[in-house]
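Hi R.,

As promised on Friday, here is the backbone we talked about, encoded as structure tokens. Could you run it through your design pipeline when you get a chance and send me back a sequence?
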């Protein structure tokens, strides 16, 4: 029995409030200064609705996130997004992408993957019996046997 590869999406934000981690699993996240945003950024240099994260499907049944500048209605942020040093309107996130929202406000995206593991269901009839004389150390058995000088006496 094989379980599918497992992945976790993590966004680590650093802003005027410090460092915070967000595990991403929802279909959409709003990012910005507005208190109603799903991921709130604390900085005067960040737009109220600075960016949006959208979950999109991969062919294998897993998913990835795309970050889009501004809100879902198409209104861009005032300062835009710098992703890995390039100003972009939208970007499909990859492991360790760095997103800059403004001065001293940035995020790093991590895609954590755990490979598929093969699991075997336990055999419900596997019963191992242990005899009391099986629990000792095998090297201790030499102490209980007489050595050659005791046998000759």
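Update: got your reply. Pasting your designed sequence below so it's all in one thread:
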């Amino acid at each position: 029995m094989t379980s599918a590869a497992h992945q976790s999406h993590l966004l680590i934000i650093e802003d005027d409030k410090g460092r915070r981690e967000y595990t991403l699993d929802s279909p959409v996240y709003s990012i910005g200064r507005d208190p109603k945003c799903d991921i709130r950024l604390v900085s005067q240099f960040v737009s109220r609705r600075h960016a949006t994260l959208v979950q999109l499907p991969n062919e294998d049944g897993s998913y990835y996130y795309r970050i889009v500048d501004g809100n879902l209605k198409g209104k861009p942020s005032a300062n835009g997004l710098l992703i890995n040093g390039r100003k972009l309107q939208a970007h499909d996130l990859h492991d360790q992408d760095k997103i800059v929202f403004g001065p001293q406000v940035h995020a790093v995206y991590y895609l954590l993957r755990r490979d598929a593991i093969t699991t075997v269901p336990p055999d419900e009839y596997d019963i191992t019996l242990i005899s009391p004389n099986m629990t000792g150390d095998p090297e201790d058995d030499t102490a209980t046997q007489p050595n050659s000088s005791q046998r000759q006496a």
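One thing I noticed while checking it: The chain has a mean pLDDT of 84.

Thanks again,
M.
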